[in-house]
Amino acid sequence: MPMTPSPSAHRDIPAATVSRLPTYLRALHSAAARGITTVSSGQLASAAGVLPTQLRKDLSHLGSHGVRGVGYNVARLITEIARALGLGRAWPVAIVGMGNLGRALAAYSGFGTEGFHVVAVLDRDPALVGEQVAGLTVRPIEDLPALVAELGIAIGVLATPSDGAQTAADALVAAGVEAILTFAPAALALPPHVSLRRVDLATELHVLAFLRASLSDLPDVGVAG
Amino acid sequence: MPMTPSPSAHRDIPAATVSRLPTYLRALHSAAARGITTVSSGQLASAAGVLPTQLRKDLSHLGSHGVRGVGYNVARLITEIARALGLGRAWPVAIVGMGNLGRALAAYSGFGTEGFHVVAVLDRDPALVGEQVAGLTVRPIEDLPALVAELGIAIGVLATPSDGAQTAADALVAAGVEAILTFAPAALALPPHVSLRRVDLATELHVLAFLRASLSDLPDVGVAG
DNA sequence: GAATGTGAACTCCTTCACAGCA
DNA sequence: TGCTGTGAAGGAGTTCACATTC
C-alpha cells in the first residue's frame, strides 16, 4: 500500500487505523439516519466488516470514550472521527486527466457527501480544454498555480495515462499541492513532504486472479459446462 | 486492506509480495520494450518504487534465480512472475453497474494489456439494458448465470451504488464467480471461498486529507494568498 | 450482566547485515 | 569486485485475555 514514508507527525494515530475510520464514519452516519443513537462495538464492527476488538482498539487511538456496559454515542463518535480525520470543511480537489476515468471521477457523487469537492478539472490536451465536464470547464495544466491559489486546492487526483503522470504530478507539486491520489500505474518521484496514495486497478485484478487461481488449482474455470 | 481472510493455499507467496508483483511485471515489460535484457535489483526496484532488498526478498519467494554479480534476465523474470500470478491466459471479467464508473472501467484499456478482458457488462436498470458500452451490449443481472457458464467469467467487478452492492454480489456468487473487486463503499457479506478486494475512492481521499492536515497543522490551506 | 479499554502475545512484513557466488 | 539470496533483527498491526466500569 503506497504511502509517503517520511512524515512522522501522524497525530500518533496509526496509518492502518486512519484507513478504517472513514468506513466507521459511514456506518455511523447510516445508523444515525435510521434514528439509532447508541451502538456497541459489536454492532458497529459488523457493519464495517471488522472485528469488535479491532474497532475498539482503533477508537482507543482517538481517546474516544464509550460507556462500559452500554456502547458508543453515535452523534459524539461521528464528531470525534470527523475531527480526527480533519473534516468539518469541504476539501477542494482538482482532477488532472479528462479521459474516461477522469470524467467518471469528476461526476462521482460520493466525494461530495464525504467532505470533498471537485473544484477544478484539467487536461493537457488543447482539444479538451474548454469542454464542460460535470459542470466545470476543463482548464489547461498551465492554469494550475492560479487555480490552486484561487480555490485553495489541497488534493490533486491524477487520472492521466502513465506517460503523463510524472509531468502532471510535478505540475501539481509546483503549484503547491501536497497530497496526490494517482490512478496511473507508474512509480512517481515526489518530494518527501508530498503525500501520495495510489489506486491501481490492474494490480487489484492481478491479486484477485492470484487468489482465484490458488483456490481452485484447475487449469480450467471451475464451472461445470 | 480488504481480503478474504480464510484461504490458506496462497502458494506460500505472502500477500504483500503478490500485491507488488504486478508492478515489477510492468517495469520489466517496459524494460524489455527498450531492449534491455538484464536488470539489477537496484534498477528494477527504483523503477517500481521500492527498496532493492524488498525486491530481492519478494523474488526469492518465487524461487527465482538471478545471477550473482550480474542481475536478472528480463525475459525469464517476466515468465516467472506471470506464472506465479496465474497469467498466461486472459481472465474474463464482468462489470456490474453501468454508471459513470462502470462505463469508465469498461472502456479502460489498461485491463486488456494486463491479461484481463472485459467480456460482459450488466445493469439492473431495464432502461440501460440493450445499450452499447465499450463494444458490449448491456445485459440484465438475470443473465449472469448464463454469461458465467458461457464465457467462463472468473472475476466480477462491482461498480454499483452501495445499496445494490450486496444484491449484485450475491448474484455474482450464485452464478459461480469466486473473485470480486468492489468499488462500493459498503461491507459485503460473502461466503468464505469468495475472494474480495475493495477499492474505496472516498477513503483514499480521507487518508490523504488526514496526512495533509497532520503535516501543516494550520486551520487554513497553506497557500500564501 | 454487559460492554469498553488495554497490556501482552502473536503474526506478518520490512529492513539490515552479510554470506555466497559469478 | 558486484550483486544476489537469506537468516536475523526490528517494526507494525492484529488478536487475545482480562481488568474495569456502568
Question: How would you sum up this structure, described in words?
Answer:
The structure is a homodimer of 225-residue chains. Chain A has helices at 15-33, 41-48, 52-61, 74-84, 100-107, 110-113, 144-151, 162-174, 201-215, and strands at 38-39, 72-73, 91-96, 116-122, 132-133, 136-139, 155-158, 179-182, 195-198. Chain A is of the alpha/beta class. The first copy, chain A, has 2 domains: 15-84, Arc Repressor Mutant, subunit A, CATH 1.10.10.10; 91-204, NAD(P)-binding Rossmann-like Domain (Rossmann fold, 3-Layer(aba) Sandwich). In chain A, the strands form 2 sheets. In chain A, strands 5-6-4-3-7-8-9 form a 7-stranded mixed beta sheet. Chain A has a two-stranded antiparallel ribbon with strand order 1-2. In chain A, α1 packs across α2 (41-48) and α2 crosses α3 (52-61). The first copy, chain A, is globular, with a radius of gyration of 21 Å. The two termini of chain A are 38 Å apart. Mean pLDDT of chain A is 89; it is low at 1-10 and 218-225. Chains A and B meet through α1, α2, β3, α5 and β8 of A and α1, α2, α5, β8 and α9 of B.
